[in-house]
Structure formats: C-alpha cells, structure tokens
Amino acid sequence: MNKDQKVRVGISIGDLNGIGAEVVIKTFSEVMMFDFCTPIIFASAKTLSYIKKSLSLQAEFHGIDAFAKALDNKINVYNLWKEPVEIKWGEATETAGDYALKSFVEATKALKNGDIDVLVTAPINKANIQKEDFTFPGHTDYLAQELEGDAMMLMITDTLKVGLLTDHVPVKDVASEITPEVIVKKVNTLYNALKQDFGVDRPKIALLGINPHVGDNGVIGDDDDKVLIPTLEKMRANGQLVYGPYAADSFFGSGNYKNFDAILAAYHDQGLIPFKTLSFGKGVNYTAGLDKVRTSPDHGTAYEIAGKGTADEGSFREAVFSAVKIYNKRKEYQEITKDVLKVSPRRAGRERSGRPPAKR
Predict the structure, then answer these.
(1) From residue 189, how far is each of 152, 155, 194 by CA, in Å?
(2) 106 burial class (0-12, 13-18, 19+ CB within 10 angstroms)?
(3) CB burial of residue 98 (10 Å; 0-12, 13-18, 19+)
C-alpha cells in the first residue's frame, strides 16, 4: 500500500437476520466515511441490495471479485455468494449462521494475507455459527488461533478502556482461571496495546478484585489475597504502574476509573456492565494483542429490532473510526521505535578490529 492509499477496512457482515447489515449500510451511506477509508464488505451485493430496499436505505454497492478492483469512494462488496438468501428478521436460523461464518472466515483470510488493512466485524449469533469445524465461542477466539499474538478483549472509548482477565467463561470457573501467569500476560498485553495502539507513554492500569469487597480479608474468599495482590506487588517492584485490586462495586460509581489509562476486570460482566452503562452506543470492542487490527460494535444482533430500520449505527461507525486510528497509530509507533541508526560497513570493520574511527 502506498502512503497515499486509504486504509482498507474489511467488514464481515454478521448475522443477516440481525441489525448488522443495517448498521453497515447506514454507516457508509455517509459520504464523509470515504475521506479516510475504503470499505470492502464480505457478502453479496444482491443480498445487501435486497436488505437496503427492505429497509428503505440509500446506498450504492460496487460488486467485486478481486481485491484489486476495489474503488475509493465506493461501498465495495466482495461477492462471496450469488444465490438468493432468505432473510428472516429476528430469527436465529442455521442459514444465517452459515453465511455469517462464511463472511467472517473469508474476511479473516484477507486480513492475514494483507488484502485488507483492518477488520470490523458485524454482530454474530454465537449459537447458530457453531459448526463441526468452528467451535469457537466468538470472533476473538478464532482470531487468536489465526493471527499472531496474545488476544485480549478490550472495550474502548476515547476516555475509557476496560480489559478482561477472563472473558467468555462461566462465572463458577472465573477464580480458577485467574493465575499469576494469566495476570502477568494480560497486564503486559494491555500495557503494550496502550503504548503502541493508543500512544500512552507510561500506562497506569487498575485491576478489579475477584471477590466482593476484594474478599474482605478472606471472609468472602481468599483469591485476591493469595493470587492478585502478591502478583501485582511483584509487577510494581519491576516498575510497572499496576494498582489494586479495587472493590468493583464502587470503582466506577466513585469516578476512580478516571485516574487510570485502563482497567482490567476479573470477568466479563464485572467489566462490561459498567462499560456499557457509561458508553452504550459509543463503545467499541477491540481485540488487543494481535498483529492485525480488529474491532466491532459493542452490541449484538439485536433481533428484537431487526428489520424495523431503527437500529443506531453509532457504535459500528465508532468501530470503523477506531480501527483506522489504531492502524495509523500502530504504524506511527513502529516508525518511531524502529532502529534507524545503521552502521556503515567501514565503521563496522573498524569496530570489529578495535581500530579508532578515522579523524575528520
């Protein structure tokens, strides 16, 4: 990609019976979106045209069968199928799961191959997407297998970032999943993401306690005392700005979260309930820690309003903005941190021989 080329945003279409296609079309109906990115939707121009007409939306699609044919200032659709697809608004059908999976897998392949620069995923139904060869709980787990790095779900806005020590695991398994090794790995992944993806020089991270009131000195469980606290003490001794654990019930309501660059919650709902309460419709799900950039909106398929044309595209639009910003910030970080001091062959020879540099 030359320096003047816009960021190519690949989009997996998600569950066709949900609001995914609607928010995608609404997002790119705004011409200003083409000022900084070129969208490539992995779906079918015929299917999207049908949905557009059904919802009385305004958009024009440019169907392509090769990535080289994608055009700036167009809603490019990489045609993955030609057959008509029956849309059943608000229903979790096997057919919708099949096409959602096809779109996601092909978009991931394109991301790996460099045909697109970033990936933004529309919502899927985790139940109907399951197949014999796809048994992942969601997007993140599959991307962790296909891409390089240590994947971590990170919910983001401009002013709030919440990561998870554990994500899609039953509550009864949370405590056993949190080990010193997991804590160190997650903190380091978050620390590096804050530096390279968001430009934070010395990230300050807060961790929430596993048990209510951080266990109340062992009265409500000793996981915090035995696992979290000793691990954080060792990390602080090594110079990392990691603090806590904090009691989760008052951490957000008190505004304490504003004192940190990011927060690590012990489990899914502990982090996502306050995040979505504070930023619903504006938040973005970012898969941090990987060698490629992937984002998604902070909502699901929303079957209850699918087909009504009332879905708010705000979060999906923010997901596109965030993917492009992170991609550019990461390129900037790599440029700044790469070794630009190259030793000349003549100087290298002198250094190996022990001879002093020539006088000028």
Answers:
(1) 7, 14, 9
(2) middle
(3) middle
HSE (side-chain half, CA atoms, 13 Å) at 253: 5
Q: What does DSSP assign to residue 183? A: H
Q: What is the pLDDT of residue 133?
A: 77
Does residue 245 have a cis bond before it (omega within 30 degrees)?
A: yes
pTM: 0.88
Strands (DSSP E) contained in 91-138 are: 118-121
* Residue 217 DSSP class: T
Which of the 8 DSSP states describes residue 197?
Answer: H
Q: How many CA atoms lie within 13 A of 45 on its CB side?
A: 14
**Beta strands 262-265 and 161-164, pairing class:** parallel
- What pLDDT score does 347 carry? 45
208-242 residue pLDDT tens: 999 999 988 888 889 999 999 999 999 999 999 99
* Cα separations in angstroms, 155 against 67, 161, 270, 347, 356: 30, 6, 12, 49, 55
| Sequential DSSP letters for 244-289 | EEE-HHHHTTTTGGGGSSEEEESSHHHHHHHHHHHHTTT-EEEEEE
CB 72 within 8 A of CB 38: yes
Could you write out the DSSP letters of every residue in 14-55? Answer: --TTTTHHHHHHHHTTSGGGGGTEEEEEEE-HHHHHHHHHHT
45: tokens are 């121009």
Q: Under DSSP, is residue 118 helix (H, G, I), strand (E, B) or coil?
A: strand
- When comparing pLDDT for 337 and 25, which is higher? 25
* Residues in Cβ contact with 254 at an 8 Å cutoff, skipping those fewer than 6 apart: none
Which are the contacts of 51, defined by CB distance < 8 A and separation ≥ 6?
Answer: 16, 21, 22, 25, 57, 87
